[in-house]
Amino acid sequence: MRLLDRYLLRELLVPFGYCLSGFLIFWISFDLFVKLGDFERLKLTRVEILHYYLVETPGQMDIVLPVSLLMALLYALTNHAKHNELTAMRAAGVGVWRLSLPYLAVGLAFSAGLFALDELWVPQSVEAADQILNSHQTNQPRAGAQAWETKLGFSNTRENREWLIEAYNLVTHEMIRPHVEWTLATGGRIVLSAERAAHLEGIWVFTNVQEFVFPVTRGALPSVQETNLLAMPEFSETPEAIKSEIKVSKINGLKEIKRAQLSIKEILDYKRLHRDNSSKGAMLDTKLHGRLAAPWTCLVVVLIALPFGAASGRRNVFVGVASSILICFTYFVLLQLTLVLGGGGLWPWMAAWAPNFIFAAGGVLLTHLIR
Asked: In sequence order, what DSSP letters do the residues of 136-157 get, joined into one string?
């Protein structure tokens, strides 16, 4: 079977390469046509424009890769059916599911690659693209100043802790004039004010600290302690969680959460600090499940293509192309509809996974019915 598998893979990967290249060229050409005036206004060089698209392109793979794979699969299978190759393979005792193994392996490999791309590369692509676009702006802060986030405030609702920080360095994780308040299990309250703080070996260490301990009794004066250094190993807020907090805090609507490039780790870091049942919590849950579900689209499109492409009969190869366009349109319309419902608080996990479940189940059922 290895010879047959190699033949099927070769007949798939060649049109896949053409489809992927064609979609990327089309997207870059269209985007370049739309943004050319902005690039000239921002005084970007050709090398910088090329760098911009190298950074931006991975963010488009969630759509481009599955669509290219679906179109290539339908083209390849329809071409095999047109020349009666599928009929000959099945007459030789090769079942439809055995025939599909190399295709399923490709879909699984692409799903794993897309997951890694979404988790490791894409979340930083938006910031990198913005830096390229604004690289020639005279009013932009210096490179060192860009690392500082000023007037930062956030809550750790799981541990009833409030943070107010005058300035926070995203690179070194240094804090200037941090102010932390939290409530004890006994009902008392502690207020910690420091000149600086740093994250050393996994522990927040504050310098030049004033610690106010408020007793439970209302109106009682707090006790005050001053120290040069104070380590707080009980603080669970990590630099990664603070970075996620900064990123998520800038998202205020469904449109922004759909456009935001958040990794699974960033969403989990944010949720670790929050008991958030608000609309933002529902949107983040939908985004989280969407991140988990999106890579599996590559495997789902294989299951979709099998019954449409492997059915018996002599057909024009352009039937496969037309079918892929219709299927893609239906799938992405359903996906956008369910994501809107999930962002509104209606079962976020179902909103993200429903299109994959529906199309995968339909593909398996139709493939089982092939004669």
From this structure: T-TTSPPTTGGGEEEEEEEEET
